[in-house]
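Long-time lurker. I teach an intro course on protein structure, and each term I like to show students one example going from raw sequence to a predicted 3D structure in token notation. This year I'd like something fresh instead of my usual example. Would anyone be willing to generate the tokens for the chain below so I can use it in lecture? Attribution to the forum is fine with me.
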Amino acid sequence: MKKLLSLLMCGLLLFGCGDKYDDSALRNDLNDLENRVAKLEELCKQMNTNISSLQKIVEALQDNLSISKVEQISDGYIIHFSDGSTATIKNGKNSEDAPIIGVKKDTDGIYYWTLDGEWLTDEKGNKVKAQGTDGKDGVDGEDGTNGKDGITPQLKIENGRWMLSMDNGKTWTDIGQATGADGTDGEDGVDGKDGTNGIFKSVTEDNDNVYFTLEDDSVITIPKSDNSKFAIAFDTTDIAILNGGESKTISYTITDATKNTVVKAIAQDGWKVKVDATSTDKGTITITAPNPIVESEILVFANDGSYRTVMVSLNCMQGQINIADNSINATSAGGTQEIKLTTNLDYTIEIPEDAQSWLSLAPETRALREDTIVFEVTANEGMQRYTTVALKDEQGKILQTIIFRQLGTCTEVHVETKGELENELAGYDYANIESLKITGVLNDVDFLFIYRMMPNLKNLDIAEVNITALPIQAFYKSTNVENLILPNTLITIGEEMFYQSKLKTVVIPANATTIGNSAFEQCASLISIDIPANVETIGTAVFWGCSSLTTVTFEKGSQLKTIGGGSSYYGAFSYCTALTSIEIPASVETIGASAFKGCSKLATVTFEKESQLKTIGGGYSEPNYYGVFSDCTALTSIEIPASVETIEAAAFKGCSSLATVTFENGSQLKTIGGGSYSSGAFSDCTALTSIEIPASVETIEAAAFKDCSSLTSIEIPASVETIKASAFKGCSSLATVTFENGSQLKTIEGGYPSSGTFADCTALTSIEIPASVETIEAAAFKGCSSLATVTFEKGSQLKTIGGGGSSYYGAFGQLKNLMTVDMSACTQVKTIGESAFDGDSELRLFKIGTETPPTCGRDAFSGINPYSVLKVPSGCADAYKAKSGWNNFASITGLDE
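-- Reply from a regular --
Happy to contribute to a lecture. Here you go:
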């Protein structure tokens, strides 16, 4: 109190002083004291509430009550007892200076009050009971004695001191300092510490009990009632959504759920809600805001299928995140930057990777949802730099952005006449200049001077140099410049301009339209690149081998048409081994061969909506291959835009982690490419388990899915006319092959050696060949060791089953488990090729519907089962018996027999 009076007197005296006197410090002291007293008074209210609640908990023990529900509120808990009564526990903040009120059971089994761990006694030295005592029974004819209530302590703060009453406020005892101690001789006292609720340390629960841990670490345990064990909990009960029409999904967990548990939700005021149960005790609730957003609540009910029902209210509101100033200009010296904001949304802070070397969150940044974010900006000895920090919600959507610009320390010169840069720098120690900004005009002489005479130049800003093209190979194998801002007037970046240079960052101007071949090839230190919207062409090998390039961003509204590639390894971004993700602009029509080949960390490839892409390029020259995404071993999934018409050879070859390939609705894909016997569009995609080929596809080329060893099933669309050799060769898990009704397939190709369409599909057990097929070529099903049944659709147009060369190349040769071939629907067969069914030692039944025995090549049925049966059209048995090759069957009878 002495401190307060001293400050007030000083304030009155100073009101009469001159205008120049600064009394802000005094005012701040007064405000601080008032705030501290207000906080302590609020704390006192919380402690009295908690003291009453503690007594209620002790009485509940005495009365054998159980707890039916623990309800979490914003500043504590409401405890619901089985008799319908409640107790409220308020949260507090730990401090050493507040009194610690507690209870402790003595040896007589009764709970007594404690103060700072010691028994609290009355004026006679007796311990003070925290629970009432039972009354005594009366003797016959007389009333019994009433029980006595337990005594409830009360607290208050007076003159900065804690005061305690044990007689409902009639008398008060001083029990210690609450605010700062008084000063002496006019000096301020030392501030006291914040108070604590001084009663409860924590409230926890399990399936059977609720545990109240007091400040002295003693624990009071009260059992739960049966109904309380059934409860529903959410990761949040406050739903704040930024924009109308947007949704937020929260998770729920049910305690003591049964198999009959049901969760329902009711929304109002235009809000919508959907419940998705993922199991009996878990699920999600998706809430969609109306437009405009109004405050409301959603009621969620959970029932166990019997008598237990719980209800929780979810508060729905307009999300807000307001930043007082989201454009920050930092000095070159760096330091801390505080960002003030107000929000009711959860958020995370994302600093771009290329800015993390100079911008970071300071350790003193306050907890999520408070109003200050503190950033640490390092000193900048180079050019001006900038970045945009994003505040994102839990779904990754950007809520707000903060733009940081930091000034640099650099030498600035203006060159009025081309070729005069050296003269302009004559008065400087130019050999040791690290940062330089040039304005005016430059020519090849000037750039040569920069290249040869400024070995320590790291940062170069030529944004205000008036030039449309740089001199040929101006920075070819440059060893000095690391950070470069190119001229605003630049239109073309020429071929090999920065080949093998030391560039780390480069700013390409908005006017640029073309980036020439190999412009940034093997810039091993280049970290990120932003491609302006006006760039229409990125040539071959532009960023080839940029092994540190992690981020490639295309400006919104990009007009890019072509991402270059070639018939060799030199794709635009090939072997950018640090690149993890990329979004291809909608404007791109062609991605050339090898464009992203060997980008071993590229895990995510997306295409902007309304993509115009026609061709995903590729190629091969055995044993080399040049697919756009070949050997992108981290790529796990991709959706192909509807506009794509051709996926060329080896496009995704060797993408060993690619498990999912989908096609956008309305796909116009015509060709899934391939080449030779190993360079198919998806060959060696060993993680690919399934793929739905679009209905528009007409051709599946050679080796298209070769050695996709995890592919389990495939449906061939009716539009496919040709499946070329080795298309599915080596798909060792392929158990099911189906053909869409109305199939137009003409040829199932094959070749030598063992290059059939389905060769070595060792899990395939049966197949039905579409009616449209006319030719099955050599080795088509070679090595399908589990194939037991082959049938042909009614109305079959089959003419030829191929073979030749030797027994290894028959369409169905050497299939040791093949038992049944039903060609009864095949009425037009002309030829059964050499060794077509050679070595099928388990072949028991063969049916054919052609009346005139087809011509059999050498060994067509050599080595078949000695008890095999051939079924032929009625009346044709003798003709087959007389025909070479067919007489290998032990029995030849009519189909009707």
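Some talking points for your students: Residues 321-406 form a domain with the Immunoglobulin-like fold (CATH 2.60.40.10). The radius of gyration is 41 Å.
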